[in-house]
Design a protein that fits this description.
Number of helices: 11
Helix content: 25-40%
Radius of gyration: 19 Å
Shape: globular
Largest sheet: 8 strands, parallel
Order of helices and strands: EHEHEHEHEHEHHEHHEHH
């Protein structure tokens, strides 16, 4: 990883020296959080542009829900949903990520202007995915994945969730490298909510340093997921609806930024854009604390908000802490949904 903050630079993408914000545009009728709201191409493009205005650095476009039990759409329908939105956003200068498990969709999205392929299966769902991405020279997100969230493929039992996720991600990264994708184009994602319950998700968030030790930029996608609902509800209450979890999402975004994540993936941008800027300002204050006459921290805090703008450099943050909870056995109930 190349930049001074230790978050890493991904070849083919802009370089941000703070945690980047990835906005989510679900062009689906059935995603767990906002299914149907942006199903129309015009509405989806408009929403993506609004996210950029609110502080998103890149926009992730997906046409297939990955919530537990969701029925897969066919290839033609996914292409119909995704490609016009990718093309529309890219034509406006937006950095676009395509969220797909199909090589054909990735290939056409890259041709339409997408800059990044975000595959929740890490290339496992479609054997053609890795060759397509490698041939295109595109950046690729490798997420921890244990299969589709339906039937017997849901495997949420762990003896030590952090160690097992790190080991499984490492093995998958090695396979992706062997398939021809360059190491400076790989992003890793712990797959919060995918074959994991709330305890697993929290343990992974408590040990993001272990995931960063894999040596690749880290994407954290916690937005509105059910583990946040469990935390907010407490032991007796009912979890709040997904759209009422945005403050909790912003809290995770700040924690992830402080822990050195490359980017956070969120449905509601403004609060997270503010959260990562505050986290960056604190990093700046730490960098200059004790320096005679230094006022850079004050300058950082006072910098006006410009969507997509980079903050000053910072040194790596020490995120080592006490050992957090380890995974417990049990079937997952959280949305792996996008």
């Amino acid at each position: 990883m190349s930049n001074q903050s230790g978050r890493g630079h991904i070849a083919g993408l802009p370089e941000w020296d703070r945690c980047a914000v990835m906005g989510v545009v679900n062009v689906t009728p059935d995603s767990f959080s906002d299914g149907g709201r942006w199903f129309d191409t015009t509405a989806a493009v408009k929403h993506g542009l609004e996210m950029v205005d609110q502080g998103a650095d890149l926009v992730d476009v997906g046409g297939e829900s990955t919530r537990p039990g969701a029925t897969r759409v066919d290839e033609a329908e996914e292409l119909r949903r995704v490609i016009p939105v990718v093309r529309g956003l890219a034509s406006e200068g937006v950095v676009v990520s395509v969220d797909t498990m199909r090589a054909s969709v990735a290939e056409q999205a890259l041709a339409a202007g997408a800059a990044l392929v975000n595959d929740v299966s890490g290339g496992l769902a479609d054997p053609a995915m890795i060759p397509v991405v490698a041939d295109a020279g595109a950046p690729f997100v490798v997420m921890h994945w244990r299969g589709f969230l339906e039937g017997g493929n849901v495997r949420g039992v762990y003896d030590d969730v952090v160690t097992e996720v790190v080991d499984e991600l490492h093995a998958r990264v090695e396979a992706v490298l062997a398939g021809g994708i360059a190491p400076d184009r790989i992003v890793v994602d712990p797959g919060l909510g995918f074959s994991k319950d709330a305890e697993h998700d929290l343990a992974l968030l408590a040990h993001l340093d272990r995931l960063r030790a894999l040596g690749h930029p880290l994407l954290v996608a916690a937005s509105r997921k059910r583990f946040l609902g469990r935390v907010l509800a407490g032991p007796e209450g009912a979890p709040p609806p997904a759209r009422e979890r945005d403050a909790a999402t912003a809290a995770v975004s700040a924690l992830a930024a402080h822990a050195g994540a490359w980017a956070v993936r969120v449905h509601e941008v403004r609060a997270t854009a503010d959260a990562v800027r505050v986290a960056r300002a604190v990093e700046g204050a730490r960098t200059v604390s004790g320096a005679p006459g230094a006022d850079r921290a004050h300058q950082t805090l006072g910098t006006p908000h410009t969507p997509g703008a980079c903050a000053p450099d910072a040194r790596p943050v020490d995120t080592t802490g006490p050992t957090g909870p380890t995974g417990t056995a049990g079937a997952p109930t959280s949305e792996g949904a996008r």
